[in-house]
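To assess whether the prediction recovers the assembly geometry, we first specified each molecular entity separately, as shown.
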Amino acid sequence: MPLPRLIPCLDVAHGRVVKGVSFVQLRDVGDPVELATFYSDGGADELVFLDISATPEESATMTEVIQRVADVVEIPFTVGGGVRSLDDASRIIESGADRVSLNTAALANPSLITAIASRYGSQAVVVAIDAGDGVVHTHGGRTATTTPIVSWAMEACERGAGEILLTSIRHDGQRGGYDLILTASVRDAVSVPVIASGGAGSAEHVAEALRVTDAALVASIVHENPGGLAGLRRDIEALGVNLRPLRESYE
Amino acid sequence: MNVAVVDYGAGNTRSVRAALSHLGLESVVTSDASVIRDAEFVVLPGVGSARSAMVHLNDTGAASAIRERYADGGATLGICLGMQLALTHSEEDGGVEGLGLMSGEVVRLREGRVPRLGWSVVEPWGEAYYFAHSYAATSEFGIASVDGVTVAVQRGSFLGVQFHPEKSGPAGLAFLEQCLSRA
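The predicted structure of the complete assembly is given in tokenized form:
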């Protein structure tokens, strides 16, 4: 099995990184390229960028951010937010992203998952699920659907998703730990990797999640102290979870 | 050094070029057969499906150019799908004939979570690199592995790796630099 992954998530609006606390109230925490470089140097295994302001008019702004990140950061990254078509996905991947993350659009048009997976492979398609009260939520967590979480995760994988990014809306931004029961239920239902998201407040929380699943998304815990990522990694390893060995430089 | 990155229509060539440029090397992205044949170093990158990649390589003449430079001892690095394409055959997409630079079969991963995403320490090299794949090589030309799965093959001037050196941080850059220094 690959080593557990620690994945900082950067919410981007209008080309700048912001972090939503429980999906409201945004705080500007900086330049996406600078933060991405910083996290990459600090030992992030991957990065996720969510374009929370995504509109067709803004796609050029995000494309430029993706290209700048791809030109300087040598770790894999996923881009989500406003991916509605195969063309959107192509633009993102051909700008240098490794994967696209689909959310609302995948639920509205599940064949989009298959279309992207057919062209770029399943490893290029992440389906993000915002979970609350047992059902899938769309539109940034604001709209409840009647679709049960586990059945949607299974359908997404059957259609070609190569990874599930599972966020517990209730836990997100609360820093009280991940929803481990939800995470385990989806992990058991699918055969692709599952990223736990929402609720990291300490190294212990992240370590707990990484004992349950393949990867953990972190946001405010690192954004409020970006220099603390290396320390967070050490604390997680001290709790018995082995992360990848880091190499300082290529010289 | 004159470096060509093979374009086959669906690849993420930008990251490969960015990594080469970190090492101080300019590269061209091309499907032009003569450029590929004559380059000092060629990278065959990997994203997309085996069938569409082979159709594109055959249609543009790039497939023949890669075989010719291989026969002449021209250094070529295959990454991920680019490594898999060097073998005889892949079971992806209902079965696809590869470039056949060396014998071997590409088969679907059957253990653990698939796709396999993340960092693994490659043995015997002892360094962690980043992987993203659902298929893997089985070949007598294997030279490195992870959990018993072949992740690097070499025959003559062709070296293929399943991981993405361009996405593997400083370890990946060091690997690329080593490949280039031997070219």
